[in-house]
Amino acid sequence: MAYDRIRPFPNPDAFEFPELRALASVWQEKKDQLEDDGAYKEFIKKLQREWAIETGIIERLYTWDRGVTEVLIEQGIESSLISHRGGVSQQDAEHIQALINDHLGIVEGLFGYIKGEEPLTEYFIRGLQAQFTAHQDYTDAVTESGDLIRVALVKGEYKTLPNNPRRPDGVTHAYCPPELTKEEMENLVRFYREAEPIYSPEVKSAWLHHRFTQIHPFQDGNGRVARALASLVFLREGLFPLVVRESDRKEYIGSLEEADAGDLSNLVAFFARRQRDAILKALGLEQQVQQSKYADQIISSALELLKLRFTREKQKVFVVYEHADKLFAIVESKFKNIVATLDGQLRLLTPPHRQKYRARTNAASNTAAHRHYFQKQIVDTAKHFDYYANFDQHRSWVRITLATDQEFDYVVAFHGYGPGDSGILAASAFTYLKAPREDGGTEFVSLHPAATDLFQFNYIEPYDSTQKRFAEWLESSLAIALAEWKRLLQV
Question: Which of 249, 292, 304, 432 is the most exposed place for a label (fewest CB within 10 A)?
Fold first, then answer.
């Protein structure tokens, strides 16, 4: 397999993520209120710790379960915690702590580097690799005969020998030959600088990450440097470092392999989703901090100012509730059409002497008396996707029931995302069975999310864009729900 020279950026219109554009705009409106707040600083500190830990796990420099990572994020990078929780010797734990602290110093440095608005340079990239490998003196290499050997690691300098890995299928993957590395790195920096003012951050980040890994200019540390460069792109846009978790490995590696074949789209989409998740967490924090600030203003008797600001915010974010009503109507209409077709078919399939099989649908808008149904299922589904379901301002749902020998329900619900009235709403979908109880009632069992990802929408994204995304999400959700119904019929 021959090395393929790096290519410039694709067509700027090839990738569209209006959801991320809108969320980033919401965040830019809010972030100035938070930057000096202690809760936000703690949020950034924990995000930096997670980045520092996970970038080493992805490279297999150390490994443990997610619980250890969460303890270190909360309590700090301490060798005693690594040894106790990670099940390694104290000596190994101290070495791992040094590696993670090297990573931590880099991500902290990225936050500082962007303030100087310095252009990307080869010198800066070489410096990143030297920092990443400060406590790493050796790396593994494979001889021409296939033997694995340990060699001294050169830091901050481009490779002088090939570093082409052999895949499990026996095919050798060709990175840039050493004699072309300097030229290709110059091309990388030049292409990036030319494209920097034109492209969205998720495209720039994915392109820079992939093209850098395509070159693989160093003996070791290439993956860590690539994720640092990707993070730098987002930080320059006022966003957050790119955290790639161990649980992301399959999708991450697969997207990089697709980019090797010329398709960058899935890597861009993966980076966009990771950034979306970080923004949503930050916006949730903003609401908590803002509530505290409101309390301070009330105590200081600034009630009139608070009232005026609240009114302005309400006017601005109210449009998201209009969007929710329109999406609710789409689901209600679709479910009625499904039931109109399916109910008759199920009735014809009813075995003799059985209660009629049937399909039915019902719904509750935000003003309906029974809109409070399914709270537990919605909360459990929200926990699955790691967010807080807020019912204060909006809650509505639409349900399909498929009654055969058992009753199967599929529900799409709309509600607030995170605390407060942020102008961000979520749609969740789930399925469950109604099982008879001994006392004659029924209970919900076999609860499953009926979507692979959270659907959120906000007051900045145009409705046409939201509606297009939602239509795709709903089709996917419906397929998941019906597949679960079919599976349960076979049990």
Answer: 304
* Nearest one of 430, 441, 443, 444 to 480, comparing CA atoms: 430
- Per-residue pLDDT of 126-150, as tens digits, reads 999 999 999 988 887 766 666 777 8
Quick one: pLDDT at residue 301? 39
Judge if pTM exceeds 0.70: yes
Q: Token pair of 123, please?
A: 């010198």
Query: Where are the strands (E) in 119-174, listed by range?
Result: 138-142, 148-152
Q: Domain span at residue 119?
A: 12-281
Tokens 């969460």: give the residue. 70
Three-class SS state of 351:
coil
| C-beta of residue 253 within 8 angstroms of C-beta of residue 60 | no
CA atoms within 13 A of residue 146's CA, in its CB half-sphere: 4
The CA distance from 104 to 91, in Å, is: 20
Q: Rounded distance, CA 65 to CA 453, Å?
A: 23
Q: What is the CATH number of the domain that holds 163?
A: 1.10.3290.10
Pair 205, 326 in one domain: no
The contacts of residue 205 (CB under 8 Å, 6+ apart) are 229, 230, 231, 233, 234, 242, 271
Q: How far apart are CA 35 and CA 443, in angstroms?
A: 47
Nearest to residue 23, comparing CAs of 455, 379, 451, 387? 455
Tell whether the model's pLDDT for residue 293 goes beyond 50.
no
If we measure between CA atoms, which residue out of 487, 418, 423 comes closest to residue 450? Answer: 487
Containing 188, the helix (H) or strand (E) segment is: helix 178-195
pLDDT of residue 146: 67
Q: What stretches of 42-120 adopt beta strand conformation (E)?
A: none
- Can you name the residues that pair with 398 across neighbouring β-strands? 363, 412
Amino acid at 340: A
- What are the Cα distances from residue 367, in Å, to 180, 371, 372, 406? 66, 7, 10, 31
